[in-house]
C-alpha cells in the first residue's frame, strides 16, 4: 500500500485494535451519498414484502438466493477505494467481500438489533471480519444508532448468546454473559455518508427507532483471505431469524490473494 492510499493515522489503527471499532474522519462524496439514497429507494420498492432491516446480500444485482432483489450501487460502494483502503489498513491486504446488508429502520417502527457478536452467526474460520457500516441517513440515539461495547472484541472471546423470544427483532439471539458490562456501551452517532468499522468479536446492537426519522445504514462485510468461508459449517437456514444461504453466497476477492482455498465461483451467474 503506498502512502497516498493510507486513509487512517497510526493512532486510528491503534484505536481500532484496542477498542474493536473506529469512526474514521472521512465521508463519501455528496454524489455517492445521493446515489446510495436513490438505491435505497429502489430496493425498498423492489422488496416490498420484506422488512427493510432484513435486506440481506443487497449488493447482488438480481433476485439473490436469499430472496432479496439487490442493486449494483451497493456493490460499487463495497468496491469504493475510500472504504477498502481503511479496511486494508486494519485487516491487511488480502480482502474478500462476503456480505452486505441494508439495515433500514423506518421512522416510528424500526426494529431493535439485540446486543450480539457477529461471529455467533457466521461460517468463517478462523473467525475474522471487518464490517464497514455506512450511514445513509443521519444515525443518532433518537433513531436507533448502533451502540458498541468498546474492547469487548479483545482476546477473541465468543460470549454466550441466548435465543431472544421477543417478536420484531432484527436478529433472534442476544449476548447473555456475566462477563459483559453493558453499562459501558457507547452510541456510534454518524452523519450521512460517514462510516464506522467494527471487528467480528465486538459486542454491539441497536435500539428500536421510535422517532419520526428513518435510519438507514448499510453493513459491508470483508474477511481476510487467509480465513475460509466454510460452506459446510452453516448452510442455508433461518437461524438468525431470516433466510441466509451461505452454501451459495458469492465471494469476491477485492484485493490481494486468496490464501485459504475459498470458492470464489459459487453463486456467480
Ligand atoms: O444497523 C444496525 O443497527 C446493526 C448492524 C449490525 O448489527 C452489524 O452491522 O453487524
Properties at a glance:
269 residues, alpha+beta, Jelly Rolls, seven-stranded antiparallel beta sheet, four-stranded antiparallel beta sheet, binds 2-oxoglutaric acid
Folded structure, characterized:
The chain is α+β, with helices and mostly antiparallel strands and 269 residues long. The protein has a single domain (15-254), classed as Jelly Rolls. 17% of the residues lie in helices and 26% in strands. It has 4 helices and 17 strands. It has helices at 10-19, 30-46, 72-78, 81-91, and strands spanning 21-22, 55-56, 95-105, 113-117, 124-125, 130-135, 146-148, 161-163, 173-175, 186-188, 195-199, 203-206, 215-224, 228-229, 236-237, 244-245, 252-255. The strands form 5 sheets. Strands 1, 2, 3, 6, 11, 13 and 17 form a 7-stranded antiparallel β-sheet that branches. Strand 15 (236-237) and strand 16 (244-245) form a beta hairpin. Helix 2 (30-46) crosses helix 3 (72-78). The radius of gyration is 17 Å and the shape is globular.
User: What is the level-2 CATH architecture name?
Assistant: Sandwich
SSE order, as H and E? Answer: HEHEHHEEEEEEEEEEEEEEE
Bound small molecules, deduplicated:
2-oxoglutaric acid
- Amount of helix: 10-25%
Percent strand equals 25-35%
Average residue-wise pLDDT: 94
Radius of gyration: 17 Å
CATH superfamily: q2cbj1_9rhob like domain
By helix and strand content, what is the structural category?
alpha+beta
Spans with pLDDT under 50 lasting ≥5 residues?
Answer: none
CATH topology: Jelly Rolls
